[in-house]
């Protein structure tokens, strides 16, 4: 089961519950704000969140992490390049909002790490490194369900900005081509903002076909 929850404090961001239908255990991806809203959804649906997964370390994707981590005793995971973003409010941009977000007790994972549920190891996601929007950017891919949680790397008919710490346009476009667009055409892409798309659709778009 995939449940999208739009959370807003400064920027509307898509948080995703990726839940095993049998056990109701699962992952929460990119809880950017509104911890109370996300806790209420989990409680009402009977979800048990084992791990919080971050596609990258910008403030609008990590804003509710610390509160939820404490409430659920959930493991927080991100790509191994994420330490600068987790620990430095200038890099995660929260300093611009006056928050100064710092994450603690983060598990840093390598490219291609398989993240599994304790309750059901068959419910899993593959971490695929996609730097370029940030140096720690990654996608979480489920081959079984044909979905990829792509954060801010790819949007509907567009791609992420690269003018912030750790960003680089050439790097992002190269990694989108090599790490996301090589997935099966039917793969649904679930971005950090706005509407879902697919590998098949984005391969046809001028931003991709005309530049890669």
TrEMBL record:
It holds the Pfam family Lactamase_B. Its cofactor is Zn(2+). CDD domains: metallo-hydrolase-like_MBL-fold. InterPro entries: MBL_Glyoxalase_II (IPR051453), Metallo-B-lactamas (IPR001279), RibonucZ/Hydroxyglut_hydro (IPR036866). Keywords: Hydrolase, Metal-binding, Zinc. SUPFAM superfamilies: Metallo-hydrolase/oxidoreductase. Signal peptide: none annotated. The keyword Transport does not apply. GO terms for molecular function: hydrolase activity; metal ion binding. SMART domains: Lactamase_B. Residues 12-193 form the Metallo-beta-lactamase domain. This is MBL fold metallo-hydrolase. The lineage of its organism: Bacteria, Bacillati, Bacillota, Negativicutes, Selenomonadales.
């Amino acid at each position: 089961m995939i449940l999208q929850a739009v959370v807003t404090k400064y920027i509307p961001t898509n948080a995703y519950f990726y839940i095993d239908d049998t056990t109701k255990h699962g992952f929460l991806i990119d809880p950017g704000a509104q911890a109370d809203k996300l806790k209420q959804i989990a409680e009402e649906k009977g979800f048990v969140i084992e791990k919080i997964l971050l596609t990258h370390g910008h403030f609008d994707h990590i804003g509710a992490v610390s509160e939820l981590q404490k409430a659920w005793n959930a493991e927080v995971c991100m790509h191994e390049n994420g330490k600068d973003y987790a620990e430095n409010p200038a890099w995660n941009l929260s300093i611009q909002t006056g928050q100064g977000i710092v994450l603690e007790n983060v598990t840093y994972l390598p490219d291609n790490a398989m993240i599994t549920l304790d309750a059901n190891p068959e419910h899993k996601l593959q971490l695929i490194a996609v730097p370029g929007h940030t140096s720690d950017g990654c996608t979480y891919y489920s081959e079984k369900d044909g979905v990829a949680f792509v954060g801010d790397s790819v949007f509907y008919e567009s791609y992420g900005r690269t003018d912030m710490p750790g960003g680089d346009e050439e790097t992002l476009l190269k990694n989108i081509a090599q790490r996301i667009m090589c997935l099966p055409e039917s793969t649904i892409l679930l971005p950090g903002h706005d509407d879902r798309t697919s590998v098949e659709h984005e391969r046809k778009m001028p931003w991709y076909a005309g530049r890669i």
